Amino acid sequence: MSSENIVISIKNLSKCYHIYDRPQDRLGQYIIPCLKRLVGRQSKNYFREFWALRDVSFEVKKGETVGIIGRNGSGKSTLLQIICGILTPTSGTVETKGRVAALLELGSGFNPEFTGRENVYMNGAVLGLSREEIDERFEDIAAFAGIGEFIDQLVKTYSSGMYVRLAFAVAINVDPDILIVDEALSVGDELFQRKCFSRIEAIRKNGATILFVSHSGSTIVELCNRAVLMDTGEKLAIGSPKQIVGRYQKLLYAPIDKQGDIRNQIRRMDEQLVISGNIEQVTLTESNLASVGKQSLKEIFDPHLKPSSTIEYESHGAYIESPSIYTLAGERVNNLIRGKVYRYTYTVIFTKGASNVRFGMLIKTTSGVELGGGVSAGSLRDSLPYVEAGFIYRVEFRFRCALNPGVYFLNAGVVGIVNGSETFLHRLIDIAMFRVMPDTENLATGIVDFECFPEIGIQEASDHESRR
């Protein structure tokens, strides 16, 4: 990676907090060590160390969108605050190039005794805009926030939704070189969220670099070029969003006694992480699809069409085996024909008793975008009340192949109640893959075939003239 293209450089970054059990310990730490040093005696610390970050290093190049994902308390927000200059690191360095706009604690700089208009000018100045620049952008900010006449009302009269909408509108209209976002993409209603995503997409297309934190794996997959997995203050892995999200989910659903082993596995995988050139990407090339198209359009099973990105969750008393796709006639296939119905099947072996059991499947693109799937029961009320240890269940989902030519992946999962909450008893990510055969007569575009049939007719010129 050329140093000229690097806009964020993080090297050996660490952040340590001092945790005091009692208020008087803080005072003691401030006074007693000084007194003991004066008389030549050794002092003890009255605090415990908490390392929010430990030796984190990575670089982000210009124009990249990088997502940071991890469990609560993994150091994600601390990392962003150090990059923005809000916090000072204990050790290590951060270098950024260009104007930085941050969407961290939205509206944290707003004064409730000022109007929305006054806060726009004040917050814009904090973000580095001159008054003339804010004047030029004010109408866009007001329109984006969509709070109408409330823009001239005191902010203390705003609802929480109006508050964050205005804060987001200010920050998003700075036209930054680097945009940093900390879980701010869930503000407002669905319409406003769509506006936020569209605006961020426009900023990205203009060449800005985006670094954001999210707990949503699908958001990371859809928006990012790369992703970083954080856990307990450490950078465990960096790579393609699909691979990183898979590792995060495995760690998230792991039993507590297995989490240390899984962290070590992820560290080892990070050393061998292949970001490009895997089987998923190779099978998508036009030459490969064309070669398949030369064959007769018939379902077949290709033994070489196997995923290289499979991730298995730790078991909670169940194991999934033999996930496969079959035709309705019972023939195993992985080269499918668009529009036909297939059966996706697997077996589940229960080694422990489980309650409120449900089964599921999911179809995804090669980049990890979730296209859809199904579950065996829509609620706990309709699930299997109890499954005894030693039982084996055969699960089957029928689905119509409504996908356009390409390569797709399948998940398989079984959930049940563990320690009072629903969790995965076992899950296999990218356990199977299939190819949808090319069809030269296919008029559909995109990923999903919605069976859009065009109807085109000629309109008489006289009819057009009569309507003018």
UniProtKB/TrEMBL annotation:
One Pfam entry name: Wzt_C
Residue intervals of the ABC transporter domain: 36-257
Descriptive protein name: ABC transporter related
Alphabetic keyword roster: ATP-binding, Nucleotide-binding, Transport
Family from the record: Belongs to the ABC transporter superfamily.
PROSITE patterns: ABC_TRANSPORTER_2
Annotated GO CC locations: membrane
MF terms in GO: ABC-type transporter activity; ATP binding; ATP hydrolysis activity
InterPro entries on file: AAA+_ATPase, ABC_transporter-like_ATP-bd, ABC_transpr_TagH-like, Bact_Polysacc_Export_ATP-bd, P-loop_NTPase, Wzt_C
Domain of life: Bacteria
SUPFAM superfamilies linked: P-loop containing nucleoside triphosphate hydrolases (SSF52540)
